[in-house]
Amino acid sequence: MTSFPEAARVALGDSQLRHNLRNATTTIRDKRARVVAEVPDWEELREAGRAIKADVMARLDEYLVQFEESVHAAGGTVHWARDAAEANRIVLDVARSHGADELVKVKSLTTDEIQLNDALAAGGVQAVETDFAELILQLDGDWSSHILVPAIHRNRAEIRDLFVRTIARGQDLSDAPSELAETARVYLREKFLSAKLGVSGATFGVAETGTVVVVESEGNGRMCTTLPAVLVTVLGIEKLVPRFADLEVFLQLLPRSSTGERMNPYTSLWTGVTAADGPQELHVVLLDNGRTNVLADETGRQALHCIRCSACLNVCPVYARTGGHAYGSVYPGPIGAILTPQLRGLEQAKSLPYASSLCGACYDACPVKIDIPTVLLHLRAEAEKSTAESASMRTLARIFGSRRLYERAQRLARLGERPARHLPGPLARWTEMRDLRPFPTETFREWWSRERGA
Prior knowledge:
The protein is an alpha/beta fold.
């Protein structure tokens, strides 16, 4: 992936992008502040959310087995996927077993993470995104730049032009939101009614009951999870909560922190299958894809507490200027800066932990109190362990810890003083703008030995 500094430099040159970001994040941030101020026990709710997620991480093995048993008891099927390839293969196999060459799909960061759409297309199955913003991105071959508002970098005129080229079917369109929404609605309604298979992610999974929860704002998710005869849900293993009653906490925290609403317009819950009501076949894919590696890091595992509200993005001064594409991941912003390097491996995203001013606004906004600045510093320290600078510091520590090596280094320094003023190779640029002070002709230790005979 392109390093964050390189990608951010390109984004900073896009004035329209910065304008779109400023308008959207300011609006969402202001709405959130108003509805959070209405809740007298907001901080207690945050602490309850943090405690529940910490309990899940500490006992994840137990809760996963309990969830599997609960789903089976309710008539569903659970599949375990170690990585993206296994998860994609499971979904493709289900689609093929039902003769489906097209499916409808709920907006899902987890399926974007594993590039499910591309894998399905390679196997001859077309996934149709039904979230309005995700549909926009799919039609134009673009990808998400915000957790909550994937097309935040697009304006109405751009969307109108795109629809005219693709799904408007020869109609003349204005850029009125109602007209754009109606165009998408007409196109998607046909897809909903003809689809044999629906695919969703999950906001939460309840270990106690096997219930899967999707929280969304448009109603397309409910269409995908109720109309097709078969439903496949891809659920990251960190998305569990222990008890059904725990949803009371998160269904207060999430809508206020994400859309600035007291309650989400559509909160869909399903438990297994029910005769003559909704899908008659349910498959739940439990996805690891690096999550157990994150869990092994006592500091970094906080990233798995995330409930995907995007509050941290909307207050981040770095994100507000660069947008989501600069992060090179479906998880942008502060949470992406700590989650992506751990899921992919730090060597694959070493620059992301530095994509922060460490102002702490993300921690203050996070509804489950993820200490993002602390994790950023932790990952920076891990990244530096393998750098040339870190190796140099270890060498210096060894020299400074030995009198014999230290005195030898002083003598060598004097011998190499003149060449060191213009270092070769990659160090040349360092000495182009710096004048090294001359070394003394005699060190203190040498003076002491000469004067005192020691």
